[in-house]
Amino acid sequence: MDITQFSQINPPQRLLMGPGPINADPRVLRAMSSQLLGQYDPAMTHYMNEVMALYRGVFCTENRWTMLIDGTSRAGIEAVLVSAIRPGDKVLVPVFGRFGHLLCEIARRCRAEVHTLEVPWGEVFTPDQIEDAIKKVKPRLLLTVQGDTSTTMLQPLAELGEICRRHHVLFYTDATASIGGNALETDAWGLDAISAGMQKCLGGPSGTSPITLSDNMVDVIRQRKCVEEGIRTEAHSDGSEEMIYSNYFDLGMIMDYWGPERLNHHTEATTALFGARECARLILQEGLDNGIARHKLHGDALLAGIQHMGLETFGNLQYKMNNVLGVMIPQGVNGDLVRKLMLEDFGIEIGTSFGPLHGKVWRIGTMGYNARKDCVMQTLSALEAVLNHLGFNTVQGAAMQAAWDHYRHGSC
Ligand SMILES: Cc1ncc(COP(=O)(O)O)c(C=O)c1O
């Protein structure tokens, strides 16, 4: 092998304005360049405890068991589902996009009896629709997605916790795409479990999934407690129910590792934890409400610009996430060519779409470190230039002016 062919990593400059990942905040990158520690070094366990406290703030919860799963957002989803679902359990999944289907698939792998409720992509569910389905199905768990990035829609969750309590249903949501940019109140909304990801509004790289578990959910998981041979002592006893069918994602073991016993499980992904800690510090220093307002300001400025460019948007705007917008690709315009020119000539990435929306919708994000005025203005000007170049004529300058006007009347 000629090793000289492999140069040092030096990625091209990109402005990531898709549905995530986005450019990481430089403060997060700096935290991630810190030297490693041994995982039981008191300095390291202190950082782990700080991470638990910080993410209680991010999730708006008092939940003791608020911690990180090492792996991307999907690892957090899988850890919660495989730990909570026993084979044969009924689960109800309201599906309004690709990530609802992902919950169904993971639940099926956990041998759940999966029941779904569907609305067309671009819409969300009313609480009544969900309650009616709960009455019919009588599930043990309700599995929801808060913000389904595939459609850009945000499912209102505030009323669902009360419905779940009344029907003795455990309530989970995947907040990967929404946390930090949209309201999420774990305790006030009665959520039993949430998993999230770093690479959207939290402003970090993917690779860590923060989760939080209610006391109810912890009781359910503890009933399946298991301690590995080789580290168990006579003081340990197993739970009354069958063990969780994954070792890596066994939340009982992961709690024992993050808890005072510090029972050995995986080797901590120290660098990722340092990054996640900085993401939480960033968001709490800004203030959760200020962060949400910032995402709304820049999301609305982008929306104003897109509308004044003469483009149609996708989905019911009343339920749009603050941090991502679906834009209909105009008739006769090659959507992939637009993305290619924006990347190659402007260094800006915008997103394509999945499934039924593929080739029809672009997704443009304004989130985390990139929820900023300069990013919105650059993206609008590049998109307008590329569209005009390809023969889709706009009133030149109108989009930028509309976004700019929005900022003059906004407050961040
Ligand atoms: C809502 C939602 N859930 C889950 C995922 C999966 O995340 P990851 O790719 O980090 O595993 C994504 C990724 O975009 C997402 O948007």
* Sheet with the most strands, sense and barrel status: 7 strands, mixed
Beta-strand proportion: 5-15%
Percent in helix: 25-40%
The value of Rg in angstroms is: 22 Å
Helix/strand class: alpha/beta
**Poorly predicted segments:** none
Strand order of the largest sheet: 2-10-9-8-5-3-4
What is the N-to-C order of secondary-structure elements (H for helix, E for strand)? EHHEHEHEHEEEHEEEHHHHEHEEHH
Give the cofactors and ligands. pyridoxal-5'-phosphate
**Shape field:** globular
How would you describe the overall organization of this protein?
The protein has helices spanning 26-32, 42-59, 73-84, 98-109, 127-137, 160-166, 215-222, 251-258, 270-286, 288-308, 335-346, 373-389, 398-409, and strands at residues 15-16, 65-70, 90-95, 113-118, 141-145, 147-148, 153-154, 170-174, 193-195, 208-213, 324-328, 348-349, 361-365. By secondary structure, it is of the alpha/beta class. The mean pLDDT is 97. It has a seven-stranded mixed sheet, sandwiched between helices. 39% of the residues lie in helices and 13% in strands. Residues 20, 72-74, 99, 145, 148-149, 174, 176-177, 197, 206 line the site of pyridoxal-5'-phosphate.
